[in-house]
Amino acid sequence: MEHTKKLTEYQLFIHPIDFTELRRDIWIDEPIPAKLTVNKKRYNIDLAYRGSHIREFEKKSYHIIFRKPGMYRNAKEWHLNAEFMDPSLIRNKLSLDFFKDIGSLAPTSRFVNLKINGKNEGVYLELESVDEYFLENQKLPKGSIFYAVDGDANFSLMSELDQDVKKSLELGYERKCGKIEDEHALHEFIIKVNTISRLNFEKEIVRYLNVEKYIAWLAGVVFTQNYDGFVHNYALYRNGESGLFEIIPWDYDATWGRDIHGELMAEDYLRIEGFNTLTARILNVKTFRHQYQKRLENILQHQFTVEYMKPKIRTLMEVIRPYISKDRYVNKNIHLFDKEEEMICGYIEARTRYLKNNINILN
């Protein structure tokens, strides 16, 4: 992980009329024009609120699209997350960095300090958009990316939302980049997940899915305990060279022992076998199940330890601590912030005990 002692400052200027329009209805996705200054360079941008339930929070999160110049840090768009319900503000970044450490794809992120019309808005997490520029920046082959936008992205033929057969296999997904034929590939993949016979599943599914990468992602979800990660909070990437699907985590603030409300989450809240149709079918194959078990054991030994994670936690918190005290939205809870290192480390110890006590289920 890369850190600096001083956070980059983002200065947003929004015309008062446009600002009034933005705040008039928090559920409108239509962006407003704005200007962003970073390191004395000015960008014309489109700006909108981002997220679902988080739009109701006092401290908003934002979606930025660059217009002129049309790129910033080799990206067309960025997300600024307030991380408002996380007392530490670091769980999202901590999770995404952890995914990278265990061999899974994940977007890059860094903390910035945001000002709007000269007024300090506090610490934000700048999150890379998962799109064609993400592929380029990560030196990955070109391909298609589908966002899982709701619970229908459950790898099933049945709708999670209305408990009936899906009217379309596109339900739950939004194509971010790629061609229309990639949607046909997604349809075929979901059909195969549900219709390949148990006898043939092991040898057939590898024609559609990078199973090794899926198992790495599954381990990441289970360790960080992101319950929602199985039916949304992810993106699907179809590698243009291999033709195989890979999975990318997204929005991992409700992790490391706290839920989406910032409340404590028991260490056994998410079972070791995970959820969703694809995960169930993967773990129903003895070879894949043992591969997953070995991956868990390896991570328990190397990355998911207090010894390994504590310096990362401390570094992140030390970087943003001076800015937290000036953040009018969260500085009143700075006493909670100061306890979060201990709290996250306690979660790691408790989750470790749960996983070690239940890992034989995978035998």
UniProtKB/TrEMBL annotation:
Keywords carried by this UniProt record: Kinase, Transferase
GO MF annotations, alphabetized: kinase activity
Top-rank lineage group of the source organism: Bacteria
Keyword Kinase recorded: yes
A Pfam family per the record: CotH
Protein name: CotH kinase family protein
Source species: Peribacillus psychrosaccharolyticus
